[in-house]
UniProtKB/TrEMBL annotation:
This is Adenosylcobinamide-GDP ribazoletransferase. It is found in: Cell membrane. InterPro entries: CobS (IPR003805). The gene is cobS. It catalyses: alpha-ribazole + adenosylcob(III)inamide-GDP = adenosylcob(III)alamin + GMP + H(+); alpha-ribazole 5'-phosphate + adenosylcob(III)inamide-GDP = adenosylcob(III)alamin 5'-phosphate + GMP + H(+). Pathway: Cofactor biosynthesis; adenosylcobalamin biosynthesis; adenosylcobalamin from cob(II)yrinate a,c-diamide: step 7/7. The keyword NADP does not apply. The chain crosses the membrane at residues 38-60, 113-136, 142-165, 186-214. HAMAP family: CobS. It comes from Roseovarius rhodophyticola.
């Protein structure tokens, strides 16, 4: 149908929000899940915006940059249901814990977390907290744009991989969403870059390059080790791009 082929629809925002956050929204037809990927960067602004507000509130209360960073990080985790963190731990467990494609996918599907996954979670959370602490210490004028830009670029990375890489398995969240059309992925990148320019100015070039390199690296690794992407790969990509962008924006 014609409506199903439209690139952008307002209802796409609700679809993406129901998928990427724990904010309760009503959705009806989910056949546009893949086409709704163009909204991922916009949806990413919601948890990042709440995180920025929480961090600024802590600063106004005089709690210091470390607590501001901790509150911001906690809001990011809670509002997304830790789905991206879960993807990171499963990805690291699987890609480094198995010797064959089948075994790696089996490990990634296992709900239990292994040593690699625990280490990845600890290091990633520590990296995000340290980066946010340094940013809040420099001031909200550094922390807020960095939080929002990292949300934009990291959410734009996911539809790129969903468009470029095949599904590594015939089940799972990413497979259920479907293959993202190239124009939807391109629109997600365009939105992230345009809004990023307003937030960062010329620094968007550095942040965008960091995001592109991480996305390419994880995409290449996923293609080599499991033959494509899964929801866990996408979650890991979001986390690693977010970390890379925050670090490259440190004052």
């Amino acid at each position: 149908m014609k409506n199903d082929r439209e690139l952008m629809r307002v209802q796409d925002l609700a679809l993406a929000m129901s998928l990427l956050t724990r904010i309760p929204v009503r959705v009806g037809d989910t056949s546009r899940n893949a086409r709704a990927a163009w909204t991922y960067p916009i949806v990413g602004l919601m948890p990042a915006g709440l995180a920025a507000l929480g961090g600024m509130l802590a600063g106004w209360l005089g709690w210091g940059p470390a607590i501001s960073a901790l509150i911001s990080l906690s809001i990011l985790v809670v509002t997304t249901g830790a789905m991206h963190e879960d993807g990171l731990s499963d990805t690291v467990d699987g890609l480094w814990g198995g010797w064959t494609k089948e075994r790696r996918l089996e490990i990634m599907k296992d709900s239990r977390i292994g040593a690699y996954g625990v280490i990845a979670l600890v290091l990633s959370l520590a990296a995000r907290w340290a980066a946010l602490t340094a940013l809040f210490e420099a001031g909200a004028q550094f922390a807020v744009p960095a939080l929002l830009a990292s949300a934009l670029l990291s959410r734009a990375a996911m539809p790129v991989l969903m468009a470029l890489l095949p599904h590594a398995r015939s089940t799972g969240l990413s497979h259920d969403v479907g293959r993202v059309p190239d124009n939807a992925a391109a629109m997600a990148v365009l939105i992230a870059v345009v809004l990023g320019i307003f937030l960062l100015g010329g620094l968007i070039l550095i942040a965008g390059l960091c995001a592109a390199l991480i996305t390419w690296g994880l995409g290449y690794l996923a293609h080599k080790r499991i033959g494509g992407q899964t929801g866990d790969i996408l979650g890991a990509t979001q986390q690693m791009v977010e970390i890379a962008v925050l670090l490259c924006l440190l004052p």
